[in-house]
Amino acid sequence: MFDSISSVSAAISPAVLIPLIIVGVILLVCSLIFLKFFKLWLQARLSRADVKFSELIGMWLRRVDIRTIVLSRITATQAGLTITTRDLESHYLAGGRVPNVVRALIAANRANITLTLNTATAIDLAGRDILEAVQTSVTPVVIDCPDPNKGRTTVDAVAQDGIQLKAKARVTVRANIDRLIGGAREETIIARVGEGIVTTIGSAVNHKSVLENPDNISKSVLSKGLDAGTAFEILSIDIADVDVGENIGAQLQKAQAEADLKRAQAEAEKRKAMAVAREQEMKALVQENQAKVVLAQAEVPKAMAEAFREGNLGIMDYYRMKNINADTAMRDTISKPDKDKN
Predict the structure, then answer these.
(1) Parent domain of 150
(2) What is residue 99's three-state secondary structure?
(3) Alpha carbons 59 and 296: distance in angstroms, whole number
(4) Does the structure show a pLDDT above 70 at 120?
(5) Does a structural domain hold residue 284?
(6) Share of the chain above pLDDT 90, in %
(7) Do residues 150 and 229 share a domain?
């Protein structure tokens, strides 16, 4: 037997053997590829999702997650959506989340929300969670204002009577698919609602009117159109709680009074310092004038001596002057009270 096989092999020329080997290798490769993708192809075929073998091989060569694309295509087909394999593959290659987009499209279709494939993929590539946005559009969510995770639990504002009020609000919003790309997020809604609460309380004449009708805050804030330019539509603004805080007006008046007191004390100290300086200046001026008097008195003997030498003053005139001075000194002594008796 072996001899017959050997004789047959010897009878086949190399020109015939090489093509047979090549054909065998090609058939083997095709068989392996067929076995590799047969299960997914059959699953898509039975689900009426037309995925061709050539598309499976092309995705394999482009290093695309074939299972994710095929299962997403099957899911979309079963939900009644018309999405091609190339659309799903293009979004995958762009870095998108294909299953998330398909589920979002199905949820939007079930909720009668207009959402196209281009819009969904654009939102997904922009970094927004399109499935969460559709769910938020269907089921509105409640946002706390202020956000307790940021450290503050109340929005504080002061009425015109100086009383501080601390308010908490809950904002019910739903996603606006048309403004999801480029629209502001929850932080902007919280900031705008907080600003509206502060403005409304600040414009109130007294805090009692706010406590009596807290819904006026909701109506006033809601009428401002705070959802403009955001990715949400505000459905309602509800004031959860309003508490009375401190008397800010009284504290400001007290602080102002203390500041006025300190300013008055400073002015008084300034005037006192000026008065003391003026007193010292006057004392110095008195001493200066006294020094001038002493200098003038020192000139008297010189003048008298000069008068004697020139003959303008006689000895009797001098004695009369001395008697007058003595008489004047005696009268001054008599007119002054005795210090020892006091």
Answers:
(1) 140-251
(2) helix
(3) 125
(4) yes
(5) no
(6) 2
(7) yes
